[in-house]
What we know:
The chain is an alpha/beta fold. It is 37% helix and 20% strand. It is built from twelve helices and eleven strands. It has helices at residues 4-7, 30-41, 52-57, 84-98, 115-118, 160-172, 192-200, 214-229, 260-268, 280-287, 292-295, 300-317; strands at residues 9-13, 22-26, 69-76, 103-107, 136-138, 141-145, 179-185, 205-210, 234-245, 252-253, 272-278. Strands 3, 4, 5, 6, 7, 8, 9, 10 and 11 form a nine-stranded mixed sheet that branches. Strands 1-2 form a two-stranded antiparallel ribbon. Strand 8 (205-210), helix 8 and strand 9 (234-245) form a beta-alpha-beta unit. Helix 4 packs across helix 12, helix 6 packs parallel to helix 7 and helix 8 (214-229) runs parallel beside helix 9. The chain is globular and about 55 Å long. The protein starts with a helix and ends with a helix.
Amino acid sequence: MLSFLSRYYLITEVNKNSSLACFRFHLQNKVQYYAAIKVLKAGLKTSNLRDTKDRKSQGLPVKLPIPGVNNVIAVASGKGGVGKSTISVNLALALAQNSVHKVGLLDADIFGPSIPTLMNLSGQPEINHQNLMIPLLNYSVKCMSMGFLVDEKSAVVWRGLMVMSAIQKLLRNVLWGPLDFLVIDMPPGTGDVQLSITQNIPLSGSIVVTTPQDLALLDARRAVDMFRQVNVPNLGIIENMSVFVCPKCNHHEHIFGQEGGQSIANEIGSEILGSIPLVKELCFLSDNGQPVVVAEPENPVSLIFRCIADKVVRKLSE
């Protein structure tokens, strides 16, 4: 059965000079419309209707934890091409290496899955007796991706409802547990997939990846604002490609700008979890399915990822 927001179109008009937000719904079910109006007249703000009872009364999907998963971390960017998937993979591996943590990695990019390549995995997942897909495993990290279910050269040409259905299956029809951390590699943007995930499962926190370039920073701010609107705490900012390091002379050049990530962190009262330089080894190893954290554990970039993982664990334990 489709969720309330999947079945109906919602148009919101907010009167900034009044405490009452005026909603106009394109609904077939008028009962839910009047229930929503009743809540609004009671003086409640929609941003605070997050507990189970309120979500049920509004016809919104109830956030149910993924069985056996203790913490879910969303890694987002708002923009493609900033290295978010590479960050997600190496963060997951660093979390698995830093201690005895059990870690999973979900590729939520239905249209452009990258995890199979980055994690050097292929083949379809097996199905257990409970009709759950068993994640593929490499480097001690459980992985699931649409890339395991379709041919790597085939385009996924789906409408929104089909995409959201696929996301539900990747979340609920997979034998994830037991896990200490599930890292979700979010797709670019702030659309259907992001909304579906944030509305259906409780997220422990979000990490926004950006480059120092002004154009990337604009979309990173949108990603930060999206998580703010759905009440998902920000764990920090990761600045990728922060500086180019010449492989011959070790000269450092800020080709995309400088301290852009720090500016966003300052704006939202968060912090820079780490700055990843643009180095040849990271690109080469990623393309060959050998994440730098496991291929070159003593590489300075690997040390940065392990430091980021330490900060994330500490923040989630506070």
